[in-house]
Prior knowledge:
It is built from eleven helices and ten strands. It has helices at residues 3-6, 17-26, 91-94, 119-133, 144-155, 190-204, 216-226, 232-240, 298-305, 323-326, 328-339, and strands spanning 50-56, 59-66, 73-77, 99-104, 137-142, 160-166, 243-246, 249-252, 282-287, 311-316. Helix 4 packs across helix 5 and helix 7 (216-226) crosses helix 8 (232-240).
Amino acid sequence: MSPAVxxxxxxxxxxxxxxxxxxxxxxxxxxxxxGLMVEPIHSDAVPPLRQRWLAAGDVRLRLHExxxxxxxxxxxxxxxxxxxxxxxxxxxxxxxRYRVVALDxxxxxxxxxxxxxxxxxxxxxxxRVLRDLGRPAHLIGHSKGGxxxxxxxxxxxxxxxxxxxxxxxxxxxxxxxxxxGAPDQSQMTIAQRCxxxxxxxxxxxxxxxxxxxxxxxxxxxxxxxxxxxxxxxxLRYFVYHAARAHDDGWRWKADPQMVxxxxxxxxxxxxxxxxxxxxxxxxxxIGSKPDTWGPLPEKLLQRRLKYxxxxxxxxxxxxxxFIHMQEPESLADHVLEFLxxx
Length: 342
């Protein structure tokens, strides 16, 4: 089955895109509850000025833009289970000098679902955005998006001027890939890891939709449990753009099959050496507050970053893993200064 039509995510079939997007803002797309709630606003967030689609094979990727279309581009790549609107506090600060383009990764946000998800395909999607822009750009990625932006910059050195990696330096060790009840992959052969990965994919294929949450507030509370460092005003704003209302409740937009993981057999110790070919200067950013998601122990972080030829580092005070959501003003100051020299 084609990746573009496998999933119920593309709910605009048979509806003009303009009508579809207008309906989406009202929360009244086909199969959804009409007029359920007013879109939350945030005192420090600015919605994108422009939105468009980019074809990636049979999958459509959703791009969100701020700033002067003629300015030097900056491409923003979000983390796992997040979406491009998570940059609505950082992007407008960068848009004072740049054309800012935030990408909804496949299976996330408003981009289409695919048949399966693999790290190299996500990296290729970032490369597609760079090629579409037609001129060298800066790359900024958070968490998983930081690692993928780094790989994209390595693959397309002539298209990337500067790279900002926001706490996207991989898991601490093999345990970082271990799921509850799963086998210890550090004790498995590559062949066994391939088998375990394929078994996971087969199991994930049986899950086509998320369970519905009775109310929007239930969904906000769930995300708040995962990210206690995010304030309630931002959580409501962020979750609204991460979910949709259906006639039986609220569901995440993200493809549930994506959650099974697209890494395949992989060892974290391969991460650092893979960055030896990176030509772009990197600004490596972490937050000062350790939380469930980061940062890495300093010795391990140094061990990986030693492979980056042109490296600068900064720690953002008051931020945890979600630096761009927690301290966007401070982060923007550092990023703008760095990009001005890259």
